[in-house]
């Protein structure tokens, strides 16, 4: 068990207990051509309402123009560390169908797809960190995103780096013990 493994109150899959969201990524690590195929396959098979599969992704490898475009939309705190990851991925939810009907569950379903992706990535030895601090309008404009799709989050994917490469206070947060609310506090009601 690593120092980053979650201390759970009930048994969970090792991959879930070991998964965490680092900020220190190895800037020398690159992803070979089909390295992300498995993680997106896991996302593809996530459950969705009416099998609508309302998720789409913009994938950019470090060194590409698209990577720089996405990186430039990140909030300053995220921009301080995310550029060392091997890839940036924008997660988009199809909130309206082609016929114009709303899909109020789209963001929930996208979340399931990204959760599947992050667990698969961890099982493949990659790390994922999701971020909400970015300019959604700038992403939509830069990639000519159809208005039916809403950018919801950006994630970084890559190999783990050293916490020593991070500036304070990010370094301190990187090595701090993992914490979560107590399990019982999650329930509003329970029979």
Describe the structure.
The protein has helices at 14-18, 37-44, 65-73, 76-82, 106-123, 136-142, 170-175; strands spanning 55-61, 87-94, 127-131, 149-158. It is globular, with a radius of gyration of 17 Å. It has a domain at 40-166: 3-Layer(aba) Sandwich (NADH Oxidase), CATH 3.40.109. The protein is 31% helix and 16% strand. The longest helix has 18 residues, at 106-123. Strands 1-2-4-3 form a 4-stranded antiparallel β-sheet, with helices on both faces. The chain contains 7 helices and 4 strands. The mean pLDDT is 93. It is of the alpha+beta class.
Summarize the structure.
This protein has 191 residues and is of the alpha+beta class.
Question: What would the keywords be for this entry?
Answer:
191 residues, NADH Oxidase, 4 strands, globular, alpha+beta, Nitroreductase-like
Helix and strand arrangement:
Elements lengths: L13 H5 L18 H8 L10 E7 L3 H9 L2 H7 L4 E8 L11 H18 L3 E5 L4 H7 L6 E10 L11 H6 L16
Antiparallel strand pairs: 1-2, 2-4, 3-4
Helix pairs in contact: 2-5
**Helix/strand structural class:** alpha+beta
> Strand count, sense and closure of the main sheet?
4 strands, antiparallel
Nearest-integer average pLDDT: 93
Distance between the termini: 34 Å
Protein name: Nitroreductase
GO molecular function: oxidoreductase activity
InterPro entries: Nitroreductase, Nitroreductase-like
Organism: Leucobacter luti
């Amino acid at each position: 068990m690593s120092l980053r493994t979650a201390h759970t109150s009930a048994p969970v899959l090792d991959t879930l207990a070991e998964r965490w969201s680092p900020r220190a990524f190895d800037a020398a690590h690159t992803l070979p051509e089909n390295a992300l195929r498995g993680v997106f396959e896991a996302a593809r098979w996530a459950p969705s309402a009416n099998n609508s599969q309302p998720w789409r992704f913009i994938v950019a490898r470090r060194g590409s123009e698209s990577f720089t475009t996405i990186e430039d939309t990140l909030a300053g705190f995220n921009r301080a560390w995310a550029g060392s990851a091997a890839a940036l991925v924008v997660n988009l939810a199809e909130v309206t169908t082609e016929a114009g009907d709303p899909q109020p569950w789209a963001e929930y379903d996208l979340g399931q797809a990204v959760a599947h992706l992050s667990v698969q990535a961890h099982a493949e030895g990659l790390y994922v960190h999701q971020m909400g601090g970015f300019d959604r309008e700038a992403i939509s404009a830069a990639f000519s995103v159809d208005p039916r799709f809403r950018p919801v989050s950006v994630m970084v994917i890559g190999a783990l780096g050293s916490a020593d490469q991070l500036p304070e206070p990010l370094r301190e947060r990187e090595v701090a013990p993992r914490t979560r609310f107590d399990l019982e506090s999650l329930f509003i009601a329970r029979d």
